[in-house]
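Input sequence (119 aa), recorded before submission:
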Amino acid sequence: MKNGDICVSTINGFKVANIYNDSLMSFVGIGVISGSNFESPDVYGVSHFVEHMFFKGTSSRKSCKQISEEFGLMGAQQNAYTDNIEVFYHCDVPSENVKKSHKFNGRYVVQFVVFGRRN
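Predicted structure, token format:
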């Protein structure tokens, strides 16, 4: 592969686009269609609230410190943002750990955000 080549695959029912580059660092992001455009007046702000809760911990990851440590062990730094049409969870990770990052991010986002589980 050469820089700029795109490979689209399906992982657990989600389409994943990988854009190849020969950098030592990679960017991994997961977008969830959500945001104020999809919220009714009685729940305005819930997408942004869920974004922040994402980093607070789950039953298997007890604290934001543990989540941060797991990313740190991969050499990754995570963040997220919410706008009116999406919540986007992302991290910068050494290219050698992209698969680990996909596994961690995918499982965590799907369980926490899509299915509303905190485990």
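Checked by second reader. The first strand starts at residue 6 and ends at 11.
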